[in-house]
């Protein structure tokens, strides 16, 4: 499975009776340079959890050179982080560490998204999640 940029939201093929839409990849259209504040709120998994950002025209963290793909791991971030994103499409999805590889878009994985004021809250299941969408909880605020 490749981490490719997509231009439309990707939904999980799994549909539970008690669930709303479960998203594999969230897609944003960034019209001008933006800053994103990313904050990890909770993790309830034995596997290291993270968030992957794929940008059409580049994204950077900590003023590093722009990259097409940035993964932020929950065990490496103490509080919040500011990402700088250029215009174009931006993909966001949850990832997790497996033996010597990054897991994503697999089995029961996916995200539920809710908006609280100007902050988007992502509740995520990794591939082994029990359906409570608490493998990772993070937020994004577009500044």
Description:
The chain has 143 residues and is an all-beta fold. Helices cover 0% and strands 57% of the residues. It has no helices and 11 strands. It has strands at residues 10-11, 23-30, 34-43, 49-61, 67-73, 80-85, 88-98, 101-103, 110-116, 119-125, 136-142. Strands 1, 2, 3, 4, 5, 6, 7, 8, 9, 10 and 11 form an 11-stranded antiparallel β-sheet that branches. The model has no long low-confidence stretch (mean pLDDT 86).
What's the helix and strand layout?
Layout: E1 10-11, E2 23-30, E3 34-43, E4 49-61, E5 67-73, E6 80-85, E7 88-98, E8 101-103, E9 110-116, E10 119-125, E11 136-142
Antiparallel strand pairs: 1-2, 2-7, 3-6, 3-11, 4-5, 4-6, 4-7, 7-8, 9-10, 10-11
Please give a quick description of this structure:
The protein has 143 residues and is mainly β. It has strands at 10-11, 23-30, 34-43, 49-61, 67-73, 80-85, 88-98, 101-103, 110-116, 119-125, 136-142.
Q: Give the oligomeric state of the chains in this entry, treating copies of one chain as homo and distinct chains as hetero.
A: single chain
How helix-rich are the residues, as a percent range?
A: under 10%
Low-pLDDT runs of 5+ residues are none
Mean pLDDT: 86
Largest sheet: 11 strands, antiparallel
What is the succession of H and E elements?
EEEEEEEEEEE
- β-strand percent reads over 45%
**What overall geometry do the principal axes of the alpha carbons give?**
globular
Distance between the termini: 32 Å
Tell me the number of helical segments per DSSP (H or I, 4 or more residues long): 0
Radius of gyration: 14 Å
Structural class: mainly beta
Q: How many strands in all?
A: 11
């Amino acid at each position: 499975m490749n981490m490719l940029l997509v231009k439309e939201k990707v939904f999980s093929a799994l549909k539970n009776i008690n669930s709303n839409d479960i998203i594999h990849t969230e897609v944003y259209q960034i019209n001008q340079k933006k800053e994103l504040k990313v904050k990890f709120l909770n993790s309830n998994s034995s596997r290291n959890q993270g968030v992957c950002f794929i940008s059409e025209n580049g994204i950077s963290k900590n003023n590093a050179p722009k990259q097409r793909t940035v993964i932020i791991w929950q065990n490496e971030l103490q509080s919040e982080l500011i990402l700088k994103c250029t215009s174009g499409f931006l993909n966001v999805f949850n990832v997790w560490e497996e033996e010597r590889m990054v897991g994503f878009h697999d089995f029961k994985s996916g995200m539920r998204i809710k908006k609280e004021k100007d902050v988007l809250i992502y509740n995520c299941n990794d591939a082994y999640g029990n359906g409570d969408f608490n493998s990772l909880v993070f937020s994004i605020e577009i500044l």
